[in-house]
Amino acid sequence: MPGVTTDRATAARTALAALGGLLAAFAALAFAELAAAAARPEAGPLTAVGGSAIDRTPAPVKDWAIRTFGEDDKLVLRLGIVAVLALFAVALGVLALRRRRTAAAGVLVFGIVGAAAAMSRPDATGAADALPSLAGALAGAGVLYVLAGRLTAHRAAVPAGPADGDAPGPGPAPDAPAAGPAPDAPAAVAGPAADPAPAPDPIGWDRRGFLVAAGVAAAASAGAGALGRVAASARGQDAVASRSAVVLPRPASPAAPVPAGAALRIRDLTPFVTPNKDFYRVDTALVVPRVDATRWRLRIHGRGVRTPLTVTYRDLLDSELIERDITLTCVSNEVGGPYAGNARWIGVRLAELLERAGVRPPSRGGPADQLVARSVDGMTLGTPVEDVMDGRDALLAVGMNGEPLPFDHGFPVRMVVPGLYGYVSACKWIEDLELTTFDAYDPYWVKRKWARRAPVKTQSRIDTPKPFARPAAGTVTVAGVAWAQHRGIRKVEIRVDDGPWQPADLAAEHTADTWRQWSYPWRAVPGTHTLTVRATDGTGETQTAARTRTVPDGAGGRHSVVVTVD
């Protein structure tokens, strides 16, 4: 059945064309990664396009992504970009069956898009950032063109040869009579038709050549990708070595001991000190910067700076260091959410550095009211100068929980300002501090409709029992944490269903800049119940009941959980 054979051949050819498109995309990404390792890892197309996507995503969508995917939001973004690329790759592979040059040009277009994204990033270093995307696109276009050629190169059909024992040629033997019935031969008797001779090959393309070329392309791409990862890792070894060599000096002003009653031992209650591995991470960096501390510099300049400064990492370590326990909170933290953590930080008072540069806060006649911090990946955060210089323990931190800052949390240096949400204070991988005004400059998040000023709101959270838990009737321990950095927590209360507010037992307060644990012995009776918590800060202000979303200046409302008592 020639028609069926042809249909199957067409389907097989189309499937292989789609595979060719995917292999071309794989080659493009692999060779781009290799080129990025040689140029700058942050200039790779996935990172550059992903960063541009983050920059252009509306704040509510970013908020939804963090709320839905948590710290896996960057992985989800990368997978989404790869999925979209795969769909386009399949389409270009199929298109290449009829328009090979057009499909190859389509791959180059994607390379141009990646190059443009890389060069538009805030941390772009110049035209060299375009090279990884362009190199990858050339490799992908070449692979697609070659593979498509194997699917479109037709072979001449070979006619069927004679059966064994027949004459070696297709024509009559020499001097043989012309073909026709023998004289007086009886007429041929009608009977079943003989099997037709095999039809010419309906496929007409080089299957074996395609598979060989595809295997070579896949192997070469895998090798390039592996080499790129090794090279990128080697580029970061200087940073790793510089961190390993750091010995944090003993602070001139150590943190006060944590009171014995500040850390309650209750199952499922968040620990008072958050281990580094469990500390939340919310930022826009698709590739965590690896900065060599021996080459790190911080520049302090701008309005009202009488003496511009350039500070090295060694300068900070040789300065008078202080150690403080401070709770940080992300503005993307929903009511009852996980994006808050408490750590012991060691660093230099930021106010002292600014004073060395001749900076005065607005309350003392200084012309700048905003301190813009810039990180090595181009992120900008704006902090009120008054808050940094009002006497609170605002730090340029170099250590976290007794060790140099982890790379994920800003090594070699980051900002920590108690009482402010992270997006206006906690710049990681910092390299520049500029004194300016709120009227003159809008940092990254302010351009995306977040508030210019963002003090942490009073919040409390129920850690145990968990939502939809089924505790047994009797005394059930309800426990959690509350925070209002730089104001402290005065009171925590619990309400069961629509009953009266009952005071919870507060753990000892360490400082006003750390969260406070609490517990409440609930006499649970059978049935389904709603437990709600509220806190009152050190100024006497009680946590609001009005529910608000995180945009523009942090979520508001009270946390509650529903449980069923058996």
Write the topology of this structure:
Elements: H1 2-39, H2 45-56, H3 59-69, H4 73-95, H5 100-120, H6 131-152, H7 207-235, H8 237-244, E1 297-302, E2 309-312, H9 313-317, E3 322-329, E4 340-349, H10 350-356, E5 370-375, E6 380-384, H11 385-388, E7 395-400, E8 403-404, E9 414-416, E10 430-436, E11 459-464, E12 474-483, E13 489-496, E14 502-503, E15 505-506, E16 516-524, E17 527-537, E18 560-565
Parallel strand pairs: 1-10
Antiparallel strand pairs: 1-2, 3-4, 4-7, 5-6, 5-10, 7-8, 7-9, 11-12, 12-16, 13-14, 13-17, 15-16, 17-18
Helix pairs in contact: 1-4, 1-6, 1-7, 2-4, 2-5, 4-5, 5-6, 6-7
For this entry, give a set of tags:
5-stranded mixed β-sheet; alpha+beta; 20% strand; 11 helices; 18 strands; 5-stranded antiparallel β-sheet; 566 residues; globular
Give a short summary of the structure.
32% of the residues lie in helices and 20% in strands. By secondary structure, it is of the alpha+beta class.
